[in-house]
Design brief:
Blueprint (H helix, E strand, L loop, with lengths): L9 E7 L6 E7 L1 E2 L3 E5 L2 E6 L2 E2 L6 E6 L4 E6 L16 E4 L3 H9 L11 E6 L3 E7 L4 E5 L7
Antiparallel strand pairs: 1-2, 2-7, 3-6, 4-5, 7-12, 8-11, 9-10, 10-11
Amino acid sequence: MEFPQGLINFYLTAIGEPAENQLRIVVAEGLLGAPTRIDFDGIGLGEGRPILVTNESISFELRWDNYVAYAVRNESYWKDEGGELPRGSMLERRFNSAFFRYLSETTFADNEYPGPLEHWSLTTLNHCVDVVSVGPPRVLSVRPGPSRL
């Protein structure tokens, strides 16, 4: 299965290691809720629509059977890296990134061992996740419903 292309309102709902040095990430689609009046400090700001994970949200699980490193950042602190192409999808392979360069300086992992390295970047509404591994993640569909969260 392929991860959906384009810009989608995904939330990171789970991240962990199901076994040593394996990585599992679950994302769920955020859907627009009902219009709601917004007040802040007694001042009416009009109406807004919350983005919610519901029983109708689609979810995907990404799995790496092994990885060299991964990092999670608060999306609010994301910074554009000069020279990187604009993001057109929530999951992208990246080249010549700061994270990739950092790993080349702090690990002995390279294209010889453990093999050709790939940097995968997952951007969600609240998180940016960077994963360096020897291949792309397996993508699985997760059944809708609150039990997956």
